Amino acid sequence: MVEAIVSFAIERIADAVVREASSFYGVRDEVEQLQTELKRIQCFLKDADSKQDQDERVHNCIAEIRDIAYEAEDVIDTFLLKAATGPRKGIWRLIKRATFMVIKVPYLHETGTQIKSIQAKIGSVSTSMLTYGIKFTAGEGSRSTSEMQQRLRRSFPHDEEDDVISLEASLRDVQSQLMMEEEQRRVVSIVGMGGLGKTTLAKTMYNDSHVKQHFDCHSWSFISQQFSTRDVLEGILIEVASKQDKFDLVKMEEEKFLQLRLKRIEEEVDMIVEEQFSKWMLKQKKRMKEDQWYTEEEKLLHLRLERVENEVDNMVEELKQNKRMKEDQLSTVEEKLLQMRLERVENEVDRMVEQQLSKMKLKQNKTMKEDRQPTKEEKLLQLRLERVENEVDRMVEQQWSKLMLKRNKGMKEDEPSTEEEKLLQLRLDTVENEVDEMVEEQLSELMMKKRKRMNEEELSPFEFVKMEEEKLPQLRLEGIENKVDRTEEEQSFNLELKQKKWMEEVQSFKLELKQEKWREEVQSFKLELKQKKWMEEVQLFKLEKRMEEVQFFKMEKRMKEVQSFKSELKKKRRIKEELLFQSMLKQMNVEPMFYAMLERISEEKLVESVFRVLKKKRYLVVLDDIWKNEVWDILKHAFPPKGKKGSKVLLTTRNKEIATYADPHSFPVEPPLLTNDQAWELLSRKAFPKDILINHGYPQEYENLGREMVKKCGGLPLAIVVLGGLLATKKTPREWEAVQRNINAQFFMWEQHHQYGGVYGILALSYHDLPFYLKPFFLYFSQFPEDWEIHKRMLIRMWIAEGFLSQALIRGGDEAMEDMGEQYLEELVNRCMVQVSHRDYTGMGIKTCHMHDLMRDMCVLMAGKENFLGISGHYRETIVARRIALHPKICPDSDQSHSITLLPSNSRHRSFFYFLKEQRYDMKFDHRSLNFDECRLLRVLNLWGLNVEYIPNEIGDLIHLRHLGLRYTKVSMQAALPTSIGNLRSLYTLDVRNNQSLRLPDVVWKLKYLRHLLVDLLKIQEYCRMDTLRNLETLKWAYPASLIRANAMYKLTNLRNLAVGFNRWEEIDSVMKSPIFSKGTLRSLNILARESSFPSLEPLSCCRSLRKLELRGKIPENPSSHHHNLEFLPACLNKLILGNSWLKQDPMSFLEKLPNLRFLYLEDKSFMGTKMVCSTHGFPQLEILKLEWLGVQELKIEVGAVPCLKILHLEKLQELKMIPEGIKFVTTLRELKVINMTEAFARKIQVIDGVEGKDFEKVRHIPSISVSTTV
């Protein structure tokens, strides 16, 4: 709670700084620093409330922090009050505006000093926490206390209670859900407040013989607020697992270890074999000696690898010897495979060689184009062939040069050194001889031909030679002949010279011809030699590829042998390990190993084990006392959602939200409170010995006292059991009377001796489980008297006024504070801390609620501890709490008026509540003026039902007032509220309904933060200004003129609830066409036509959020129109009231089409016809139907109409002849009220003197029928 108080103080300071920024000029820095200090200390307050009862140091520290937060809030509010109002009396009030800054200076100084004092206190608290080691987190002491509390509260299914009051209806509901066989796992929930008997009901079902026979296994787990997931899962597994299940789980867990061991064995084998293989390879290279093999496995591997090596070598030799052997003559598959692989290699090499030779030829012709990138092997072959070619070229050129040099110099030729050189020498000599012979032959032939010609033609020798030379291929002889002097005198001299020259030219020609022939021969030799070398290189390349393939084949054979050896060795060791494991399983003791397994496995494996066991069974698991949704999120994974058909989880909880969260499709069972008779039966069983009960041996006065006392228990079984245990020690009626006089005190005494088992202690667990922000909302209920019906709207408005709800705290800031307040109230209801009295017209929202008496007592106790709220029954009581609730005590037999007084003033008080059930209270004479001088920091003032003389003008000084409740307040000497209420600038709610004397002045437009204005129509001015109330959400009542004035209807766009009365239809028509309607935010609308009829209802079709509609006045019907006015009603309506509508057509034909209508009330003169018909499928959601003061003679309900009707109310239908025939088909009807009907009609549906009326058969199925006739 202290965390919430500090949070509210921070929020209050932040809100004040924003809204009153100008007022804080001069102390703004100090205020913001104070806010920062409070935020820092808030961070240390998590879980502080639950620790303060376990550590006195924490309790005192929290009290100091709470007082500091309150003081900080008081300083800010007091400063704002003084800055706004200044001195209240004397001349200073007249000149306040002129001297405002001068007056404000001392306030600023005083406020700054107070803030520094608060900061010093915060520092002191922080120092104390460090000095004394105070921590708000759970320590050893708090943990031990929680563990003790958990142990004492633990439930055990075998601990059956003898004194159990049978709750047949609840037992049937639970049993029917448990025994239902459904495909999926379902969750059955028992919900209710603490001490209601949820655990007892679950225990009864758990031990029921039929239930036990229905399920294969059962488990009971106590959860509580301090539960251990592992302990719960272990407990479930121990209970649901059979001996075979335990054996299977242990076996499965051991098998996992076996798999780990087998995996380790495989790794070891792999390592050993790899190591031995490496050794073998090393032996092949270094010829390792045999005695270096150490183990049998190593030797075995060595022998197998040697055998593989020899087998491959033999195959290769056989293939070499039988080179042309056909494939079908090969003896083994390996030989065939090797032969195929070698042939493939040879073909690949041939293909590559052909390609490379072709490429080289093309390159030599310079015509090659690279079409693709060569492979690695092709590149290698190409390089080797090019190398051969270069070597041949170099060698031949070298030999050629040597030979030519020797021939030119006439050197003696040495013997050639190589075969290639010898071959080249021989081939050159042969060429030379052939050329010499050819030239000699040609020359001889030439000479012979010359001589012959000379003889025949008698030519000179010179001409003969010339002719023959012309036939020679060389032209140079002709040139020589032309140069010789042809004179006869010189012929003889030059003949010899010509022959010499000619011979020289012949020799030259011979030499050139030889050289040419030599070159040709050299080139031919080169080519042949290259081809020879190429072929040798190719054969060598082929051989290398074959050897590589053979080695690769050997390696494959080796690796296969190694893998085979590995597999055999692994299999051998695995079999050995499995045999050892099977032997261990046969000899093992399951139970110790099972529990050892539970301690060893992780939480995830534990969930998996529970899941595996439950999946094969129809199970029932009870989870007793669940507090958080997160608990179900953790445990649900252990329960198979689709296991054996009909499996169930039964949980008990105080929070309905948990039940819905666990299974949205289930219907939680909430045990009812005990009746007075059941409560007395339970009390007597606890208070008296069995022999006295059997013989009814107790006096009647004990029963009278006991029945009075159980009323205080409110039917709560826990309280009755505690009270019975207390009375069991009281032996006399006088002692029983002492207990009866003050039962609460007796419960408190019981709490002191039974710390963890008392009524309030059990109920307080729910309070401590609340999130910090929700605790103030719960404690606020302590102000209401016992059995008080609390109206939701009024409660939420006061929450807002107190500052519990603010727009800044709402997520995103878009949601209305009222909506968030409804969510918080629903959460308290779901936690079974607040009980719903009545639902609203939607069937889902809360209309009124209340608290169980004992829950309220606990709430009052906690509120007092926190100085949150105090209750006074007498004016002399001194209350130091921040809020005061006055519950006057009067004698119930007195009919006189009683005087009360306003409580003694205290500047720290923030709220005054007066709860007067009857208006028999007057203020004391000296307090009737309601002096507010000393309580000007009030935020909530509720004077409900109080009689006073007048409301003083000083009420306008309560600038912090946010809620002013004057409903039913009687003011004897005043006709109107003072105009000073216009100064209440912080006011959120103004409620002056049902007040016959006070009128509302035209000053409400000044209340710019007003959200709810509730006033009677006759007490508000017709032209009241409202255009400034932009935050207004509720306006009941007002005149259209007020909305039209200053265009207010275009500015009040936040209205949700509107009640308006009009005299002229033009006014209401303007309002209905305004943004108030067209925006679609209205939820509730009440329109009263006083002296006129309604205009068209078409604007209502835009109200998409409208849930409640009341129309009182004539609704026009135009027969020529295509649409009836009722057809414009929005489909979202839940509640509809029509009065004085003067409708001639049957309204049911239009209204039955509204799909969401749940409540229909047709009042006096709403329908002027004589027959009403609810047709088939009409009113699909209608639950309540009220018909009053109508002239209907026949009411017809067809079969299939109103399928959800629960209450039928017929009042003053004097013309109605009989109950509708179709009512007997409405099986949902639970209540029939017939009020002020004719006696003849009433007799038809009654049983008089054992004789059933004529129409009783139609209503026989209705549980509750009440009838009254006209006088």
UniProtKB/TrEMBL annotation:
Chain segments annotated as coiled-coil in the UniProt record: 255-441
Residue ranges of domain Disease resistance protein winged helix in the record: 784-858
Alphabetized UniProt keyword annotations: Coiled coil, Nucleotide-binding, Plant defense, Repeat
Domain Disease resistance R13L4/SHOC-2-like LRR: 930-1239
Pfam families per UniProt: LRR_14, NB-ARC, Rx_N, WHD_DRP
Gene3D superfamilies registered for this protein in UniProt: 1.20.5.4130, Helical domain of apoptotic protease-activating factors, P-loop containing nucleotide triphosphate hydrolases, Ribonuclease Inhibitor, Winged helix-like DNA-binding domain superfamily/Winged helix DNA-binding domain
Boundaries of every NB-ARC domain copy: 168-253, 574-691
InterPro entries: Apaf_helical, Disease_R_plants, LRR_dom_sf, LRR_R13L4/SHOC2-like, NB-ARC, P-loop_NTPase, RX-like_CC, Rx_N
Domain Disease resistance N-terminal, chain residue ranges per copy: 5-87
Identification of the protein by name: NB-ARC domain-containing protein
Native species: Hevea brasiliensis (Para rubber tree)
Organism phylogeny: Eukaryota, Viridiplantae, Streptophyta, Embryophyta, Tracheophyta
